[in-house]
Design brief:
141 residues, mainly alpha, Globin-like, globular
Length: 141
């Protein structure tokens, strides 16, 4: 799988006007399909939704700036270690993220190539965050 920055940016441009609805849909999807992760989050999600939206924007903005992007993802991974996240949570998050992006992009824009590119991006995100999360948990024990 390859990352196509043009497809990532153009599909995100379609999703972006939906703003806070995107984050709300994401968490609804995540908790509906993975109720066991709900306890990792605060009762009220407004701050978390804002952070998710900001992280997605940063991901797209820095997609081609590897050094900055890796730094952001490593920081996110370390912070998620403190929240009790585990590497095995990443597939559920990825499935909900892709479902959310597909929903807001719409059938016409969410092509197999777009899905493949976002899947590849999430592979980098989850791999980088998972490594940092694991390292943080290991250094804390």
């Amino acid at each position: 799988m390859t990352i196509n920055p043009v497809l990532i940016k153009s599909s995100f441009a379609i999703v972006e006007p939906h703003g806070a609805d995107v984050a709300g849909y994401f968490y609804q999807h995540l908790f509906e399909h993975n109720p066991g992760v709900r306890s990792l989050f605060a009762e009220h999600l407004s701050d978390q939704q804002d952070r998710l939206w900001a992280a997605l924007g940063a991901l797209v903005t820095h997609l081609e700036d590897t050094e900055t992007l890796v730094g952001i993802l490593q920081d996110l991974g370390r912070r998620h270690a403190a929240y009790g996240a585990l590497p095995e949570h990443f597939p559920a998050v990825g499935a909900s993220l892709l479902a959310t992006l597909a929903h807001f992009a719409g059938e016409e824009a969410w092509t197999p190539e777009v899905e493949e590119s976002w899947t590849a991006v999430y592979g980098v995100v989850s791999g980088t965050m998972s490594e940092a999360l694991t390292a943080a948990k290991n250094s804390a024990s």
